[in-house]
TrEMBL record:
Coiled coil: none annotated. GO terms for molecular function: arylformamidase activity. It comes from marine sediment metagenome. Pfam families: Cyclase. This is Cyclase family protein. One of its GO terms (biological process) is L-tryptophan catabolic process to kynurenine.
Amino acid sequence: MSATDLMRDFGAMLASGGVEVVDCSGVLGPDTPILQLPADFAKPTPKVEIHKISEYDEDGPFFAWNWMVLGEHSGPHFDAPHHWITGKDYEDGFTDTLDVQRLVAPVNVIDCSQQSQEDPDFLLDAKGIKEWEAEYGEIGEGEWVVMRTDWDSRVNDEARFLNADETGPHSPGPTPDAIEYLMSKKIVGWGTQCIGTDAGQAGGMGLDLSASTQIMFRGGG
């Protein structure tokens, strides 16, 4: 299904009340959890700061507005291929140069919320994705795949959201073979509800810190 067909059908369903619109954004503020990486790997991202310009006062009597300090990857966000070294040579790999027509596509939501509740280190592997396809239908080329974990229920408590101890963060995510399988199906992108697109313990999977990012951007996806 083309993006044009998808938007046409979506518009018709909206007009008829046949779909529910869900807000997938998040509130940004000083308490927004920030990805924490080893000091020898990356400089720390600053916490989100919100500074008032005016609020119907002497600094601006007719309007309320702010200026902000935040990292590109604070809160819900999208990673362009150029974000990671394996995608640095990808033509048009910046957020503002990507073909946005390609990004409008159906989404496959794989519900792993129960497993993630029982095991914060739960890993979705290729076998699990194939089992999901057997029940719900095959994931198509050019479609999105999202791993539902309900991890966003922790977002108001940074310690619970990052869930880190002396061994590092503990949060659910995909195995490298899961991402390899999805790339073989030529999906347009992958998403999760955690601090990043990988499991908290991804560094122990044989890939340096970020399995999904390295594999997906290696393919320009």
